[in-house]
Amino acid sequence: MCGTLASFSQWPYTGLATPTDAGHSTHPSIDPAQRVVKPLIRWAGSKRSIVQRLARYWPSDAERYVEPFAGSACLFFELNPPHAVLADLNDELIKTYRAVRSDPDLVIACLRRLPKGRQGYYSVRQQSPRMLSDCEVAARFLYLNRNCFNGLYRTNRSGEFNVPYGPPKKTVKDFEQRIVDTSLALRTAEILEADFEDTLYSVQCGDFVYLDPPYAVSSRRVFAEYLPNSFGVADLARLCSALDAIDRVGAKFVLNYADSGDARRFFRKWNPTRIWTRRNIAGFAGARRGTYELIATNFEPAQS
Ligand SMILES: C[S@@+](CC[C@H](N)C(=O)[O-])C[C@H]1O[C@@H](n2cnc3c(N)ncnc32)[C@H](O)[C@@H]1O
Questions:
Q1: pLDDT in tens, 112-160
Q2: Rounded to whole angstroms, what are the CA distances from 271 to 189, 228, 290, 292?
Q3: Pocket probe mutation, ligand 1, options 43, 69, 77, max atoms within 8 Å of Cβ
Q4: Which of 49, 131, 189, 286 is least surrounded, with the fewest CB atoms within 10 Å of its CB?
Q5: Ligand 1: distance of its center to the CA of 70 in Å?
Q6: CA dihedral 251, 263, 58, 27 (to 10 degrees)
Q7: Which ligand 1 atom sits closest to the C-alpha of 69?
Q8: pTM, whole model, 2 decimals?
Q9: Which domains can be identified in the chain, with CATH numbers?
């Protein structure tokens, strides 16, 4: 049976306003040839190390790609799907994607104006994004992301970014070109600042949903700090209802989650498979060595 999640009265929709999206780029210098671009952003919890494995789940007949916990959206960029919804609760991240999509040249111009080095970093970090235009917010976000310790995103209780200076040893060549390429890749995406439940509310039959939530594991220390109180163990129950609703509506999903007692209990119904992965979690030396991850899904991927 096909429908949208909204047709199920038991769907736990919170009644929040439907998230809105901004305009699309008309950038004249973008090469129209679609090609895979590397994620623009360094992100704790990025699934770059297992992206090829996840890509096998992409059904070639999927009508739309939906990613409610987008972060650096590495699977989206790998697949380059024809239609997509990318959403995240992080408003600066979402503003950045929208500004890059609609005006990459202006984002690049704002980025060029930012001061270099340690002192420059702390002066940019001190700026309030509330006082900046959308392209300036995007430039500041990209600048801090490239120059902060391990690409972490962490704020204090007042919502101020507080990650120390720590640029990577290797700088990205052609970062400005990557901004332009990202703008092109995002052209076909709806980009939403939203809680995952609100994003999933519009899922339809034929959609493919990739879920990579933060790890809310109570039994051991894993990186879970994206935004204060954004996702905790209590949210796993909301997530489970969402998976049931996605399945009922006739859409396909793949979820990955840290292997833990909580996860095995919550996702038991979806035959979780355990895989070994090198997890990209900044600042947690133990976690960098590797860890088990669960992949849960409501369908069998085609054999490759
Ligand atoms: C593990 S990361 C996703 C990483 C992504 N797959 C990648 O490759 O970079 C989880 C993301 O969920 C976002 N997030 C946290 N709580 C959320 C919520 N309640 N609804 C939507 N997004 C949320 C965080 O901001 C973070 O970007």
A1: 999 999 999 999 999 999 999 999 999 999 999 999 998 889 888 888 9
A2: 30, 31, 22, 15
A3: 69
A4: 131
A5: 6
A6: 90
A7: 12
A8: 0.87
A9: 1-8+41-89+194-304 (3.40.50.150), 92-188 (1.10.1020.10)
